[in-house]
Amino acid sequence: MSEQSTVAGSCFCGAVRFEVDLPTLFCGHCHCSMCRRSNGAAFVTWFAVDPSRFRVLEGSTLVRHPSSEHGTRTFCGRCGSPLFCENSLHPERIDITLASMEGPIDRAPQAHFYFDCRASWIEGAEALPKRGGPTGVESLPTTEPESS
């Protein structure tokens, strides 16, 4: 994990740039339906910091969407990247998508949240063939743990 005290982040197109001062408060995968639908993914990996540890450097394209009675999600209005989530029930933190960071933070994901709401189609995903390489579809060597 990162030994830096500040880590930069951005949206896909670069119109939104921000910084986060470590340490973080938590990091975890959220499986709730709002996260899945707003990100188009099986789950979203979030981490949080105190709002005083977060700075938007470039953000003229930011769009805020009230996603629930208590929550607001912030996206880049140019490329659509989901970036931040704020919740009035937890004003002591701002949640940030880990995938938008340009470097490592100070912790790995620690938990799955709303796992009981997870997408049914991710069951067994670990058993699927692993592909990668320059084309993204080349077979990768098996990385099974060795037996003792």
Number of helices: 1
Rg, rounded, reads 17 Å
CATH class: Mainly Beta
SSE arrangement, N to C: EEEHEEEEEEEEE
Predict the CATH topology: Metal Binding Protein, Guanine Nucleotide Exchange Factor, Chain A
Account of the 3D structure:
Helices cover 5% and strands 36% of the residues. The radius of gyration is 17 Å and the shape is globular. It has one helix and twelve strands, in the order E-E-E-H-E-E-E-E-E-E-E-E-E. It has one domain: Beta Complex (Metal Binding Protein, Guanine Nucleotide Exchange Factor, Chain A), CATH 2.170.150. The chain is mainly beta and 148 residues long. It has a seven-stranded mixed β-sheet with strand order 6-7-8-9-4-3-10. The protein has a three-stranded antiparallel β-sheet with strand order 1-2-5, with no helix packed on it. Strands 11-12 form a two-stranded antiparallel ribbon. The model has no long low-confidence stretch (mean pLDDT 92). The chain starts with 5 loop residues before the first strand and ends in a 9-residue tail after the last strand.
List the helices and strands and how they pair.
Blueprint: E1 6-10, E2 17-21, E3 26-30, H1 33-39, E4 44-49, E5 54-58, E6 62-66, E7 71-76, E8 82-87, E9 94-97, E10 112-113, E11 131-132, E12 138-139
Q: What's the short version?
A:
This protein has 148 residues and is mostly beta strands.
Q: What are the main properties of this structure?
A:
Metal Binding Protein, Guanine Nucleotide Exchange Factor, Chain A; seven-stranded mixed beta sheet; three-stranded antiparallel beta sheet; 1 helix; 12 strands; 5% helix
